[in-house]
Design a protein that fits this description.
homodimer, about 350 residues, mainly alpha, Farnesyl Diphosphate Synthase, 2 domains, 2 strands, about 0% strand
Chain lengths: ~350, ~350
């Protein structure tokens, strides 16, 4: 199945799941259309990376590409991701997501239109609830995919581990952000748990576990997935500073305004003069950072060699993954698809 | 099994589950002890009502009281409840829970002790993450309870419905709070989904479904559970205004400061003079409400007859439940336990 076809089937599975929930919600109260609208808006975007990796983990382990229910189980990862995005945006007070208002801003606007008091508090609260609902629904969608019990039992162990890992990674990320400093090693540990395992390695393992894959497949998927996952996040770090808002769906320099303690920032600070480090300390995380402030930080990140070091790391990890893939004990079509997915995940215009 | 023994086994199952997770978290990072400490503190309190109702729903439907895994599946509801409490406290900006600092305040203090910037933001973010983790773990604990697949498949349908209902109820509650007004009927709808179904009816249904109970048992559990659940919440509303902080674990009048649009408040406003209604409008939801403000609201709630109307509703619902229980097609010991649990749930010193 070509990538575009997998993507289409994942979209269809997601839409069908939400449509099955819709009448139940509206029976509880017509006002719940507000929750559904916010979810629909979020799910209209997104690259469906995690379900795609799950599908190709399944195929890599010899699973039948036409297995009923597999893409429902895979698509459930997109609801888990929706939950993570909605809650992340609350934690970071982000205004935009995928080029649209973030969920809490959308709910805030709903309250403001209604003339209700405490619109901001309502926005945050409703977004927390919607994220909870997406988290609950991701589990429900996985469990009700229709896959056989033995498959689900194997997959559940990966799913459980993955959820715990991503939440622990998020907690560590919050700590690093609050402390306002992170070494390259500390920033990489957050990337490992919050991004690389969650976005790529575990979705691959999930698919392989559902298919009943052996340890050698699993190990190869780790050997490929971890470096791709780290490179994916490093690319995201670079785009968060230098990316085109039309492509990232976020305002220019948003990561700088949020003060994210990324690997890119850690690499920059390792190379910065005391004066450059002081400027970073002053500007990074300033919510009112303007274009000239963003430019000043971009200049330091470039001139210190932080950017070049980050790009070199991306290239190194991408090369590592490609080398593993060549020798991996997996079907040729899965190999080709994973190669293509790696390129898409790490691309400069991602 | 006496109620105290059920309670003890639920506590043990919860502690064993968290202990199984502990090494995995600490392997990711020693700092994750902060998450575990906050969870331990929360789980040290609580009446374990939902697991108890699940157990007695199982027994009511003829389930074996010594079934291995049943109390693990039941205890998972306490993790779901932990998630709901942690997130509710973030949404309501509540400082205390079960007589201890709420999770977000605990995390905020951790950040302040470390001298980190943005302690309040860290506190909220970390509490959102911990609530997410508890939600994920509740599903994991249920699914890995060891009960047979056919039992879990039946139970899962109730579990899924229950989670969706309580989250929708929470959304409606936030709307009612932001609008700053709710009729008795609107407040009762929130109570129905956020409290009565979630705390009592669905846990009973869950136990009965796991046991393979028939429709007549299920219907009787609804007939008993819904009125007990509504009465439970109305009692909680009364305690939120008039309760002894030593028993509620919350400061006196905390619900008034948070501006909760409870059935008790709606019953009061139905009966209030324009002057009384204006005073309620001015004081209810004032975060700085002092003792004299709390007293003024208590006086209005009492003098309008709002309190008496609420107590009358509690008595009516309690009587309704008791009448259903007498004729319910369930085992005598389950009948006795449910009668005792209803009294405990509705007691004035709950």
């Amino acid at each position: 199945m070509p990538l575009s076809r997998v993507r289409k089937e994942i979209d269809d599975a997601l839409a069908a799941f939400v449509d099955r929930q819709r009448p139940g919600l509206l029976a509880i109260g017509a006002e719940l259309t507000g929750l559904l609208d916010a979810l629909d808006a979020l799910l209209a975007g997104g690259k469906r990376l995690r379900p795609a990796f799950c599908y190709w983990g399944w195929r890599a382990a010899g699973g039948d590409g036409a297995q009923p229910g597999l893409l429902d189980a895979a698509a459930s990862l997109e609801l888990l991701q929706a939950s993570a995005l909605i809650h992340d945006d609350v934690m970071d007070s982000s205004d935009t997501r995928r080029g649209q208002p973030s969920a809490h801003r959308r709910f805030e606007a709903l309250a403001a239109r209604g003339g209700w008091s405490g619109a901001a508090a309502f926005g945050e609260g409703a977004a927390i609830v919607l994220g909870d609902l997406c988290l609950a629904w991701s589990g429900e969608m996985f469990e009700t995919s229709g896959l056989a019990d033995d498959r689900l039992a194997r997959g559940r162990r990966v799913y459980d581990l993955m959820r715990t890992e991503v939440m622990c990674g998020q907690y560590l990320d919050l700590m690093v952000g609050a402390r306002g400093r992170a070494s390259v090693a500390e920033a990489l540990r957050v990337v490992e748990f919050k991004s690389a395992k969650y976005t790529i390695e575990r979705p691959l393992h999930l698919g392989a576990a559902l298919a009943g894959g052996e340890d050698d497949v699993r190990d190869a998927l780790t050997g490929y997935g971890m470096p791709v996952g780290i490179a994916f996040q490093l690319r995201d770090d670079v785009l968060g500073v230098f990316g085109d808002p039309a492509e990232t769906g976020k305002p220019a320099g948003d990561d700088l305004r949020e003060g994210k303690r990324t690997v890119l920032v850690a690499l920059t600070l390792e190379r910065a003069t005391p004066a450059q480090a002081a400027t970073v300390g002053r500007l990074l995380g300033d919510p009112a950072l303007d274009v000239s402030g963003v430019d000043a930080l971009r200049t330091i990140i470039t001139e210190t060699g932080g950017l070049a070091a980050c790009e070199a790391l991306i290239d190194r990890y991408a090369g590592e993954a490609a080398a593993v893939l060549v020798d991996a004990p997996i079907a040729a079509d899965a190999q080709a698809a994973l190669s293509e997915l790696a390129v898409a995940a790490i691309a400069r215009n991602a």
